[in-house]
């Protein structure tokens, strides 16, 4: 069994560095996959989503929503963990190759920048409901739905914890 503590984390890169790395991988014949999310209170559904994304290609890039965007999406008390900690957790997963934090409200600009062969989304979407599907299709990429059924939710876990705390 490998000792994960001696292995390095996937690099957490800014946009320009990531573009260069992805281009180098693509020039070497690699298939590029992009997955994204808030990943606030990481759970098994996230692991299964990222594993499904990695199965689509050679290089898995994971975009993590910035703190500001998580607040806008999830509410003023979120995220529970700062963006660099969330990115570090993602970077520790063995099948993740690159991590980046994106500051925009959607992942569209990151998609335009790296043009992944596959844009992977979780099972709370269908291929026709992925907001970025037209951008991906325009340059010849594909949208893929991966992971297990949406039976796990950070927001629901937080709500459950808060409800239990109120009972005490």
Query: What spatial form do the alpha-carbon principal axes imply?
Result: globular
How far apart lie the N and C ends?
Answer: 42 Å
- What are the low-pLDDT stretches, counting only 5+ consecutive residues below 50? none
Number of helices: 7
| Count of DSSP strands | 5
Proportion of residues in β-strands: 15-25%
* Sheet with most strands: 5 strands, parallel
Average pLDDT level: 90
**How large, in whole angstroms, is the Cα Rg?**
16 Å
User: What is the H/E order?
Assistant: HEHEHHEHEHEH
Helix fraction by DSSP (H/I, runs of at least 4): 40-55%
Strand order of the largest sheet: 3-2-1-4-5
What is the SS-derived class? alpha/beta
How would you characterize this protein structure?
The protein has helices at 15-27, 44-54, 67-74, 83-91, 108-114, 133-138, 154-167; strands at residues 32-37, 59-65, 98-102, 118-121, 142-145. 40% of the residues lie in helices and 15% in strands. It has 168 residues and is an alpha/beta fold.
What distinguishing features does this structure have?
alpha/beta, 168 residues, 5 strands, 5-stranded parallel sheet, 7 helices, globular
Secondary structure layout:
Blueprint (H helix, E strand, L loop, with lengths): L14 H13 L4 E6 L6 H11 L4 E7 L1 H8 L8 H9 L6 E5 L5 H7 L3 E4 L11 H6 L3 E4 L8 H14 L1
Parallel strand pairs: 1-2, 1-4, 2-3, 4-5
């Amino acid at each position: 069994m490998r000792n994960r503590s001696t292995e390095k984390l996937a690099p957490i890169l800014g946009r320009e560095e990531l573009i260069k790395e992805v281009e180098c991988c693509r020039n070497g014949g690699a298939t590029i996959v992009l997955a994204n999310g808030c990943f606030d209170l990481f759970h098994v559904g996230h692991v299964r989503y990222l594993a499904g994304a990695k199965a689509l290609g050679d290089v898995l890039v994971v975009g993590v929503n910035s703190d500001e965007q998580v607040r806008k999406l999830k509410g003023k008390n979120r995220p529970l963990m700062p963006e660099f900690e969330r990115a570090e957790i993602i970077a520790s997963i063995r099948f993740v190759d690159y991590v980046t934090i994106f500051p925009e409200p959607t992942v569209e600009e990151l998609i335009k920048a790296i043009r992944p062969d596959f844009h992977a989304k979780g099972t709370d979407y269908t291929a026709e409901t992925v907001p970025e599907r037209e951008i991906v299709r325009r340059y010849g990429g594909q949208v893929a739905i991966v992971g297990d059924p949406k039976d796990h939710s950070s927001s629901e876990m937080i709500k459950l914890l808060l409800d239990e705390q109120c009972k005490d």
